[in-house]
Structure formats: C-alpha cells, structure tokens
Amino acid sequence: MSDEREVEELEEETLLSALASQNLDEFREAFLDKHPYDQAKFFVKLEEEQRFTVYKFLSPEEMASVFENIEHDDDQYELFLSEMDPTFAAQMLGHMYADDAVDVLNELDKDQVASYLTIMDDEAAEEIRELLHYEEYTAGSIMTTEYIAIHANQTVHSAMQILKNEAPNAETIYYVYVIDEDKKLVGVISLRDLIINEPDIMISEVMNERVYSVSVAEDQEEVARKMKDYNFLAVPVIDFRGHLLGIITVDDIVDVIDEEASDDYSKLAGISDVDSHDRSPFSAAKKRLPWLIILLFLGMFTASLIGRFEETLDKVAILAVFIPLIAGMAGNTGTQALAVAVRRIAVGDAGEQSVLRMIMREAGTGLITGTICGVVVTLVVFVWQGDIFLGILVGISILATLTVATIAGAFIPLIMHRLKVDPAVASGPFITTINDIISILIYFGMATLFMKYLI
Question: Is the pTM of this model over 0.70?
Fold first, then answer.
C-alpha cells in the first residue's frame, strides 16, 4: 500500500512540475496515462492558476472525461466552469455523456444553463434539454439517451454492424434493446447472445421478450433498489405507453446509493444536508438551524413538564439525580429502534406482516433490555442510597421507558412512511427529544403515584 502511495505522489510531482514549467508534452503524456478517476482527483486539488494551465493543455473532449469523474457531491462545478472560456466549457459539456452533463448543469442557474446550451452543438444540446425537463430524483433525471437499439426484424449480422458503429458513443454495450416501429420496447438481447448466435438468425428468434423496465417518473431510490435486487448492469426507462426513452447504468445507481445514504445520514443527524465542501459557517448554520429551532421548542416543552412536577421534586429531591439516566436510556434505545426501522423501509421490506413482526420484535427487545437494566439499576440505587423503594421506582421507570421508547422509535418512522413522508426525518435528535418527554411523564407520573413510599 505504501508503494502505491509513493508511486502516486511521484506521478503528482511529475504533473505539478510539468504544469509549473509549462511543459505541454510531458504533462499530457503523464496525465492522459492516468485513469479518469485519478485525473479528476488530481484536478480538484489544483490551485486556480494551475487549473488555467490544464484548460490550455487539454481538449474539451479530454476535459469532459475529467468532469465525468468529479464526485457528484463536489460543489465546485460552477467555479470550474466559470474559469473556462465559455465556448470551451460548452464543447466540454457536449462531449460528456448526457446524464453526466445534466448532473453538472443542475448545479447552475437557469441563465447559465441556457447560455451553454446555446453555444453547444445542436445535437448534444437537444439530448441534454430532453433530460433537463424531467423532475429531479426520478428515473428520467438520471437516465442516459446514449444506448443502442435495434429492430426485431433484423439479423444478428446487421445488429452487430449497428453495434460496431454506435458503440463508441454508447454508455454501455452489454445490453442491446429491441424496439418496434413505434419505438416501443419489445425485447432485449445481450452482447454475449449476439456473439454466440449465427449471423443470419433473426433478432426476434433470440431476443428475450421479458424485459424488466422502470417508469420515467419512478423515484431514483426505488430504481436503485430494483437494480440491486436483480443485479442489472443497466435497466431501460420507458414512458406510460412503453416507448423506450433511455437507460440507467450501474455507475449512475452507485451515485444514487451514495447520495441517498448521505441524505439519510444527514436527516438522522438532524441537519438538512451534509456538505463536506461547505466552507462557510453561516451557510452551515443556516442548514442546521431549522431542526435546532424545532428541537429547542421540544426541549422547552420537556422542561415545562418537569416544572409541573415541582411539588414531587420538593418532597423527594433525590429524584432529580436520575432524570438524565432515565432520559438518556430512553433516547439511546429509541435511536437504535429508529435505525432498524429506517433500514427496513430503505430495503423495501415494509409490508404489513413484516412491519407487525418488526414491531413485536422491538417490543420484545425493549421489554427484555428494560427488565435487565431495571433490575441492575434497582440494585445499584439500593446499595447507593439504601432505599429499596427508590430503587424499585427507578428500575420500573427504566423498564417502562425502554419498552415504550423502543416501540416509539420503530413506530414513528413507519407512520411517516405510510403518510408519504421521508422516514429519515424521524431523526436521532427528534426521536431522542420525543422519548425524553415520554420518559419524564413515566418517571414523574410513577413517582407522584407512589409518593407515600418515598417520603
């Protein structure tokens, strides 16, 4: 591993030296020998002056390969494009695969997009315009129109000729899609089947008529789940009449999975977005404030609840010592159940029977963990304070709180899912605060009820 790191550092030094000395041939030889992903990694680390030299040393087509491999969560597309000559930038976008170009253009404002499309090659611009019309986060927004389609009444030989001619511009050639005269999807044939069959056999005889496709309006997360389940390298996208509109390839799905995982993680953390490239504390604060304000008011409600039990606390002040313990345990177990529920929903396992089994399992888990923790804390409080009734009160509160909190942690995201609300918004801080309220009600309610045994 250290040898690989040394080689990579040596290559970077060579490239930086070539940029500094304005050595075109040396830079191009070393840079174009690298994998496009490594080219992109090197490019994003450069200073502005160095990037200007790169724009001079590379053609728009070569630069397109670099842009296609810049991470999609990178927030610097607009910066890089603004540094380029507008014509160079438009030509570069035109050389990119249409779906990747759309990902870049979606980061820009409408005026900038219109400007680049005007300068761009007409054919490339038209493909990109078609994709820009689709709603974000749907199959249409991540599909590519660079696929290969043939007709059922062709021979294998003629299909192979089409494949040879169109392969350089296609995003994938492992699947070839079969359409009818109305451009409706009627079949699919793999590259392997084209190779092993005789040249004069008709496509209709060897194609697979059972084609799995997705709707253009289908959510990208659902498409990702289906492609994972069926192990597809690509899946065709159709409209409501069955016309083939494009395909979604596995590399796009990897990006979707990464994007959705990041989105769910940010929501579980109680923030609107995770952006490692955001260097502005004001921007970061703006994203986090909405949840914090909501949690602030929920926290104030929790404090007011404790105030309502002021009389109970006056009589048995030691009860206040155990508030953090009860609330903390409730928040922890609720967050654990939340993670299980959100994961179950994310993998598409949220049917009625499955949900019922999960609720029962989480309730059982809460009961078992609550019982064990309750017994332990009862003994600890008894040894510590010498008051068996106080120990029993805290122990029973722990038992009831953990059971209820576990059920709540699993149930709340399921309710949100049924109401068509993203269950990930039932974030860790949100569940924790809700379970604080539940635990306070249980703890002080029982303390008030059994006050005569505590005084």
Answer: no
